[in-house]
Amino acid sequence: MTDWTKELKQVLGHAEAFAARHPRALTGSLVGLLSCFAVTAFGVAPLAPDAQDLPQTTIAEAVRSHDLSAQLADLAEHEVALSRNDLTRSSDTADSLLKRMGAFDPEFAAFLRTDPHARRVLQGRAGKLIQVNALPSGRVESLIARFPADRPELQSTHFSRLRIERSGSRIAAILETAPLQSQVRLASGTIRSSLWAATDDARIPDAIASQIAEMFSGDIDFHRELRKGDRFSVVYEGLTADGEPITWDGGAGKVLAGEFVNNGRSYSAVWFRDSVTGKGNFYTMDGQSKRRAFLASPLPFSRVTSGFSMRMHPILQTWRAHLGVDYGAPTGTAVQTVGDGVVESAGWQNGFGNVVHVRHSNDRVTVYAHLSRIDVKKGQRVEQGQKIGAVGATGWATGPHLHFEFRVKGAHQDPRVIARASESLTLPGYAKGQFQQAALAARTQIDVARSLGQGVSDAD
């Protein structure tokens, strides 16, 4: 037996003894070290046509490693910290939260219960992002909580970060405000029952689902024209807090591009911001604005319970012309103005209950009735898509719904017909070159999003 094989047996013996004493500290690094322990290198002169006439030399050299026993001992002394992420729950206590995170630390739990800043981890709405760093013994080294910023005006751009850290025998909490970061996300889905259900299945935030409906509202009546099997692909901004996707309301940014296939016909759009005016809008891939003067509906998601036609009045029990469209939706559902304008009146009006009238250009007026809440005042200027109130059942109403009317020079018109016939905005000439670049990039992203969705469909 050669000297180096004897040495190898001795080191393996040390390693076996170490494993018996410290089974948890024995890691893959041991395998890596042993693989480098002893190597015998051979060099043979290259063979040429007359190689048999050339002298050949064999060289053998043993390569010695450092003391493996000392390295294993150092590894045993090192205590590895464990890190785990989760969301707070409404039922959490200080002890149950730490236990779920794999930590047992009565001192740290007591700090969570008593410190004013630390108590915020357990108070308020559930869903805060929690990261706990603890030793294998269960002793917590730090806890970081991320949740919406305290100031409402900052919640779309910033988040609150609460750091609770242990330094020696002292535990301290620091509350900070930090900016949110955005990252591009791709998603795709198929309509089974409704757009809302499909976006939920695709794990698309509600805010993005609303923007999808807004983006294609001029092409598709989402209340009447959706078909089972319709498909959509979307590219959007997802907001993160320290790289972690946020789960609270406002966790989604802007839709950047999208495609919707409705009843076999494909529609696509891309978000583009005019660098001169600073205003953004959705455009088709050939530069035609997706935005019309009026949205197809004041509610992104609802169902039409009564159209623009003759009907039996539910309260008066007589046949009457229904001069608007009724949308069924839960009380409190946000109502948006369908176009830019000025609030002509806002208040109580007999059978309409709480009602808002908005005057638009060319002597056109829209009416929003039976509201549970009014969020605008007479004379206030409003923009398309702005929230003006909430669905309710005030006035002559048998249940929560929105009664919506469209009047042109005092005459009632079918709102859905007016929306589709309304004029569209145009892309300024100076912006066309920049837009073409944005559209090209959007096409590529939509193709990728679509392929991801096709893969899921094939798997189903």
TrEMBL record:
Pfam families: Peptidase_M23. It comes from the Bacteria. Keywords: Hydrolase, Membrane, Metal-binding, Metalloprotease, Protease, Transmembrane, Transmembrane helix, Zinc. The keyword Hydrolase applies. Its EC number is 3.4.24.-. The chain crosses the membrane at residues 30-48. Its cofactor is Zn(2+). SUPFAM superfamilies: Duplicated hybrid motif (SSF51261). GO terms for molecular function: hydrolase activity. CDD domains: M23_peptidase. Residues 321-415 form the M23ase beta-sheet core domain. Gene3D superfamilies: 3.10.450.350, Glucose Permease (Domain IIA). This is M23 family metallopeptidase.
